[in-house]
Structure formats: structure tokens, C-alpha cells
Design brief:
alpha/beta, Glutamine Phosphoribosylpyrophosphate, subunit 1, domain 1, Rossmann fold, 18 helices, binds 5-amino-5-deoxy-1-O-phosphono-D-mannitol
């Protein structure tokens, strides 16, 4: 989704804005632009395309020179990607950049037209906000912003400059994320910390309706009601290196390799005396023991981690777990009571639908638990309890390490819940926990042992138009993620099916040479899965089987076998995930795709 940056300081503002926007590229975008105060006037440069297109344009037409300004990468929502629809957008005296969606922009546009303000150049909702600010501007920026905030409906973060307030940047947020970075005599705004980490690790989190005024290298905050605010300064616990590729050709590959460390950093502080201990997250065995139903709600990969969580929690703790897609759950009038726990899983902590579910769940009185990677994100701040995953910044759009740490938290929760409910005794809980503690090493050796085979098998996938992922039980939950990973970055159509369901329709799709990737790590279901593999093989499928190193699988059933270490059945997802990630990665590389920034996708989906 769109990225916003802003700067006030002594450096070359254009350089800072472009460099900061580069760090937000992972969010996905189709155009870029900046507005900089140059000799007291606002100079705008914007274009459809990548940041390199913007830089090239500025080289040709002149680069705005100054020390204060705002910048933007746009992911089109209202209006096609084009020069004119790119941000910044301007009214007569106001120029803005915007992330989010203004739901009532048509009514506001009508209001402006009726009041003889019909100077619209673009198809965007953003331009309406720029014009509205201009309409109400009476020389007092804060009063004007507050007035407009009361009229806007939707989710948004804005960076604003007023032509008669040189060297000053205003920022405001409602739903969409925005932070304010504080450096030595310089200040920044950004949609996310990686944008500013090169300059400072210190930042403020802008809350709903709060306005920031950046001037003379310092920032002041005021509330929606105009009251001055003192805010807490946060410090990022990672540095620029963590957000760089570190010698890997792509962020995705780097992040796959970071999984052992991410898992270790996530689980180690949550284990005490060999048992899970989530008390620092506000979760005690007493709290976990009392819930009647658990709802896990999330989007995409995070939802798939929830699917694994369902199997593991139900198996061990014998509590009913419903997993749902946030965009569906929020509109289906769910049956929630005060005895229920709603778990929201989100890497970014800013996903619009997941956030809406959290708000809805809180209204019903159900307890809410967020499992979130980004510190201080909206979902983390609003939930009753939060377990932070410590994956560090995940830049590639395709989630890998964030999924892996979400899985490890699912296990910790399941173990603690099962113990709290008396379903497993202390020794069993200790034993399971000790297995989890071994995971960082096991994941590392899995990466090393399967990488060559995955690279080779990916060459067999690149010509496919369509493929299937199949599995049973936990393998089915896993295959959903394998299939998503593959389709989002390789652009090969892929679906995941419960292996036993194939005969009820989908098997008619199998044609000669169609790849079918079978995840077969659940020993108790192995024979049945192998029968399903043979059924597709008999109909011409090219079969790729992901199984453990001891699995006794008829070599006739599998064209290619990718073997991972053998663990307890319940823990197999922690290793079987690895080849699925690498298959997707190498298929995308071999097809020459933009692995880290797949087409049409955004890292953080902050609109519905
Ligand atoms: O930030 P979130 O975890 O809430 O994001 C949810 C999905 O948008 C995300 O997992 C998406 O499916 C990934 N890009 C898939 O790799």
C-alpha cells in the first residue's frame, strides 16, 4: 500500500525523501512523487512508475532543492496509475500525500463543486482532501486540519505542507500507520520505521486523530481537540543492517535464512524452567484455561499460521478453534461471548480487515490476543493482550520468517493451554517445549539439506500454467501456505486441496504433466495420502512429495521427493514449510520475476 515520508532538517530533502521511499518499496507501489520547499515555494516532482523513474525525471527536469518536504509511493486505489494520479496532490495553497482511502470523497467532492471549487485534475480521493483543506484554510493550519479531520470518513495518514508555512511539515493519522522520527536536529515522518532507520532509531507513534507539526528540526503534537501532547519516544531495537539484503540477492532468501534466529528470539524469552511462560504478554495459565471457544482471525499467510494453530490447539488442549478470514468474519455477525478468546495474527499489525475484527471483538466483550511482529502497531496497541513475534523487519512481500515465528507462538500457546486445562501433565509439556527449543537448529539444517533439490525441482515448475498442492490434516493446513507462496511470486495458478477431497471434483483438472505437490509429513495419515498421490499420478500428474527422511513411500508414486528431518508429527510444519518457501522462491527467480515485489501486491494491506 502507499508509503508516506516527510523531512525537516539540514540535509538535502530530496535525497532524504527518495532514500526513505526506497525503504518503503516493499509495501508495493506504482508511482512516486515528492514536494519540497524550494526558495519558499513548493516544488513538486511526480511520475508513474518506480522511484528510478522519478529520479530520472528529476535529473532531466531539475531536482527540487530544499530542506523540508513530503514524499509518497502510490499503490493505486482510486484512478489508474498515471502521472496525474500520482501524489503529491495540491489545492491552491496546500499540498498533501495520503495513505489510505477516503470513503466519503464523492460527497466531499460534490460539496466542493457546489462551492465553486471544481479544479480537479485527477481521479483520486486524495485530491479531494487537498482541495478541502484549501477550502477551509484561513491561515491557521491546525484549525484547518482539525476541521477537515471531522469531515473525512475512512482510513488515512496524511503528510501536509502549506505554501505560506515554509520549512514546516504537518502530519495526521486515522487508522493508517504513521510514525514521527526524531534525529539530531532533524525530524521525519514515515509509514514505517525502515524508512528512517538510516537516520535515527528514535520515533514517536502517532495515535488516532493526533496531529504532528515538524519545524526547525523538532516536533510538536496536538490532539484532535487542539490540546498540546507529550508523547513517549520509542527506540527501534534493530538497525539498518537488519533491513538490508546482507549479501543475499533478495530479501525473501535472506528472510528464509533468518528463520532459525527469528524462532530462537521469539521463543527463548517465553520459556521458563522448561515450560512455556507467556506472563510477560499478560497471559497466564488461569486466563488460558477458562476460554470456551477460540477464534483465530487473520488474512493470507497469517491466517494459514492460524490453521496450523487450530490443529495443534484442538489436538492438545481439546478446545474448539475456529479459523476465519478477517474480511469474511467482520461481516458475518459472528457469535462471540465474554467467554471466548479472539486471536488476531498479523505481521504488520496494520491490516485493515484484521484491525476491524479486533474492534468488533472488543465490542462483544470477548478477550482479544494479538500475535504481531511490528512493535507499537495498531493491532498490538489495541488488543487486550499481545505476543510480539521477534522476526525483525520483514521486507519481502511474500511472508516467510513471520509465518515461521507465528507457528512457533501457536505451539507455545497450545502447549501452555493444554497444560492449563490439564490435558497434558508437566512432564509432557516440558517434553514438547524441549522439542520446540531444538527448532532453530533443525530449521537451519533443513534449509541446507533441501536447498539444492528445491532449486532443481523449481526448474520443472516454471513451464506449468497451473498446479495443485495437496495434503491431509496438518499437511493440508501447510499446503495452503505453500500454494499461496508459490502463486504470489511465481504467478503460476495454484490451489491447495485436502487430499481426500480431490475425488469430489478437482481430480478432473489433472492432465499430463500437471505438477501436484503433495505434503506428506503426517505419519498417521501417510498411507491415505500416498493413495491420493498415486491416484493423481495414474492420471498423468508430475508428483513432488515433501515427506520426512524416514517415510516409506513407494518410489513409483513420486517423480521427485524432498525429504526433511523427521520430528514429532505435530511439529512437522516447522520443517516442511522450508521446502515450500524455497520452491516458490526459486520458481520465481527462474521465471525472472520481481521476487520481493510481486506485481499487484502490497506488503501491508491497510485498506479493505
Ligand atoms: O501483515 P499481515 O500479517 O496482517 O498481512 C496479512 C497478509 O496480507 C499477508 O500475510 C500476505 O498474505 C502475505 N504477503 C503473503 O505472503
Amino acid at each position: 500500500m502507499c508509503g508516506i515520508v516527510g523531512y525537516v532538517g539540514r540535509r538535502d530533502c530530496t535525497d532524504v525523501l527518495v532514500s526513505a521511499l526506497t525503504k518503503l518499496e516493499y509495501r508495493g507501489y506504482d508511482s512516486a512523487g515528492i514536494a519540497v520547499f524550494e526558495n519558499g515555494k513548493i516544488a513538486v516532482a511526480k511520475t508513474k512508475g518506480r522511484l528510478s523513474d522519478l529520479t530520472a525525471k528529476m535529473e532531466r527536469e531539475g531536482k527540487p532543492k530544499g530542506h523540508a518536504g513530503i514524499g509518497h509511493t502510490r499503490w493505486a486505489t482510486h484512478g489508474e496509475p498515471s502521472d496525474v494520479n500520482s501524489h503529491p496532490h495540491s489545492g491552491r495553497r496546500v499540498t498533501i500525500v495520503h495513505n489510505g482511502i477516503i470513503e466519503n470523497y464523492k460527497q466531499l467532492k460534490q460539496f466542493l463543486i457546489e462551492n465553486e471549487r471544481d479544479e480537479f485534475l485527477s481521479d483520486t480521493d486524495t485530491e479531494v482532501v487537498a482541495q478541502l483543506l484549501d477550502f477551509y484554510y484561513d491561515g491557521n493550519p491546525i484549525r484547518c486540519i482539525r476541521k477537515v479531520l471531522h469531515e473525512l470518513r475512512g482510513s488515512f495518514a496524511l503528510g501536509i505542507v502549506f505554501a505560506d508555512r515554509p520549512e514546516t511539515v504537518y502530519a495526521v493519522r486515522c487508522e493508517s500507520p504513521l510514525i514521527v522520527g526524531q534525529g539530531q536536529g532533524e525530524v521525519f515522518i514515515a509509514s514505517d520505521v525502515p524508512a528512517i532507520i538510516k537516520y535515527t532509531k528514535d520515533y514517536y507513534l502517532l495515535e488516532q486523530g493526533e496531529i504532528a507539526v515538524l519545524k526547525n528540526g523538532a516536533v510538536q503534537f496536538c490532539s484532535l481537540h487542539g490540546r498540546m501532547l507529550e508523547k513517549e519516544l520509542h527506540t527501534a531495537d534493530w538497525d539498518e543492517d537488519s533491513a538490508e539484503k546482507g549479501g543475499y540477492p533478495h530479501y525473501m532468501l535472506k528472510e528464509i535464512h533468518e528463520q532459525p534466529v527469528s524462532v530462537k528470539t521469539t521463543i527463548t524469552p517465553r520459556i521458563e524452567d522448561g515450560l512455556p511462560d507467556l506472563s510477560e504478554c499478560g497471559i497466564t495459565p488461569e486466563t488460558l484455561g477458562k476460554f470456551q471457544n477460540i477464534f483465530i482471525v487473520a488474512c493470507g499467510t497469517a491466517m494459514h499460521a492460524g490453521m496450523v494453530g487450530k490443529y495443534v490447539i484442538e489436538k492438545l488442549a481439546r478446545v474448539s478453534v475456529t479459523v476465519d478470514i478477517a474480511s469474511e468474519f467482520r461481516y458475518r455477525d459472528p457469535l462471540l461471548t465474554t467467554n471466548d478468546l479472539v486471536i488476531i495474527i498479523s505481521q504488520s499489525g496494520e491490516t485493515a480487515d484484521s484491525k476491524a475484527v479486533l474492534t468488533l471483538a472488543k465490542k462483544t466483550g470477548a478477550k482479544t490476543l494479538a500475535i504481531v511482529n511490528v512493535k507499537g502497531s495498531s493491532i498490538a496497541r489495541e488488543a487486550d493482550m499481545v505476543i510480539y513475534t521477534h522476526a525483525g523487519p520483514e521486507i519481502a512481500v511474500a511472508s516467510t520468517k513471520a509465518y515461521m515465528v507465528q507457528l512457533s507462538v501457536m505451539y507455545l500457546l497450545a502447549f501452555e493451554m493444554a497444560y492449563a486445562k490439564g490435558r497434558i501433565d508437566r512432564d509432557e509439556c516440558r517434553r514438547l517445549t524441549s522439542e520446540l527449543v531444538k527448532m532453530p537448529e533443525v530449521i537451519e539444517s533443513t534449509i541446507n539439506s533441501v536447498v539444492d533439490m528445491c532449486q532443481f525441482v523449481s526448474t520443472k515448475l516454471i513451464t506449468a500454467d497451473s498446479l495443485l498442492y495437496i495434503g491431509r490434516g496438518l499437511d493440508y493446513a501447510l499446503s495452503m501456505e505453500g500454494s499461496l507462496k508459490l502463486k504470489e511470486i511465481s504467478y503460476i495458478h495454484s490451489e491447495s486441496y485436502a487430499a481426500g477431497e480431490l475425488k469430489h471434483g478437482t481430480i478432473s483438472l489433472i492432465t499430463d504433466g500437471m505438477p501436484v505437490i503433495a505434503v506428506a509429513t503426517q505419519n498417521s495419515l501417510l498411507e491415505k495420502t500416498v493413495s491420493n498421490i498415486k491416484e493423481v499420478k495414474a492420471r498423468g500428474a508430475m508428483t513432488i512429495v515433501i515427506c520426512d527422511e524416514e517415510a516409506d513411500i513407494d518410489p513409483e508414486a513420486a517423480d521427485y521427493m524432498i525429504r526433511v528431518p523427521k520430528l514429532a508429527e505435530l511439529l512437522m510444519p516447522m520443517v516442511a514449510t522450508v521446502p515450500m518457501q524455497l520452491l516458490a522462491y526459486y520458481t520465481s527467480v527462474n521465471k525472472g520475476n520481481d521476487v520481493d515485489k510481486p506485481r499487484n501486491l502490497a506488503k501491508s494491506v491497510t485498506v479493505e
